[in-house]
Design brief:
The complex is a heterodimer of chains A (111) and B (117). With 111 residues, chain A is an all-beta fold. Chain A contains no helices and 12 strands. Chain A has strands at residues 2-5, 10-14, 19-21, 24-27, 32-38, 44-50, 56-58, 64-68, 73-78, 87-94, 100-101, 105-110. Chain B has strands spanning 5-7, 10-13, 19-24, 31-38, 42-50, 53-56, 65-68, 75-79, 88-95, 107-108, 112-116. The chains are: A mainly beta (111), B mainly beta (117).
């Protein structure tokens, strides 16, 4: 069995400030980890993924995430956010063939 | 457009009617997933299909819901006798599906938003 917990349902932040969106997972097998972004009325787009290798993963739009096996976490970070980063962010884990998604974190960037 | 195509984007049905949602995967992808999204609940897995086979339907309600992915044509999610609780966004995703599952990413369509009056 696998599960994903996104600890924050909403994260408000001012433009140009840093942000961290938290994600913890559980799985009985080796995992692959993903972050997706969803803009209003659209589907999900992949931001970044961890399959193996370096625990620090860089993605699109300046986002990065760090895989921490001991803490079973895969937090998403960006050093300086833009208004256009306002969206819903989903963490996902895939240890079996069915990816499991978290409930999502709404990132709200204020000017 | 080589992406995942879903239609209709918006569908309104009255209680008791049928809803059919269609999904054409990305070119070359033979694995299709359906997820349902409700406000503040994230994405819930419904069913995983390969061509002509249902691999896992553990997330599908036991009644009124069915899915298929025929040899030719799109995957279809069918909801019979819809009720207000079926109102949601339904997303289709496809993958290459190597080995035991998607070691790569899922590619999502833009979703079909069902409203039941």
């Amino acid at each position: 069995a696998q599960s994903v917990t996104q600890l924050d349902s909403q994260v408000p932040v001012f433009e140009e400030a840093p942000v961290e969106l938290r994600c913890n997972y559980s799985s009985s097998v080796s995992v692959y980890l993903f972050w997706y972004v969803q803009y209003p009325n659209q589907g999900l787009q992949l931001l970044l993924k961890y399959l193996s290798g370096s625990t620090l993963v860089k993605g699109i739009n300046g986002f990065e995430a760090e895989f921490n096996k001991s803490q079973t976490s895969f937090h998403l970070r960006k050093p300086s956010v833009h208004i256009s980063d306002t969206a819903e962010y989903f963490c996902a884990v895939s240890g079996s063939y069915i990816p499991t998604f978290g409930r999502g974190t709404s990132l709200i960037v204020h000017p | 457009n080589a992406g995942v195509m879903q239609n209709p984007r918006h569908l309104v049905r009255r209680r008791g009617q049928e809803a059919r949602l269609r999904c054409s995967p990305m070119k070359g992808h033979s694995h299709v997933y359906w997820y349902r999204q409700l406000p503040e609940e994230g994405l819930k897995f419904m069913v995983y299909l390969q061509k002509e086979n249902i691999i896992d339907e553990s997330g599908m309600p036991k009644e009124r819901f069915s899915a298929e992915f025929p040899k030719e044509g799109p995957s279809i999610l069918r909801i019979q006798q819809v009720v207000r609780g079926d109102s949601a966004a339904y997303f289709c995703a496809s993958s290459l599906g190597r080995g035991q599952g998607p070691r790569g990413e899922l590619f999502f369509g833009e979703g079909s938003r069902l409203t039941v009056l």
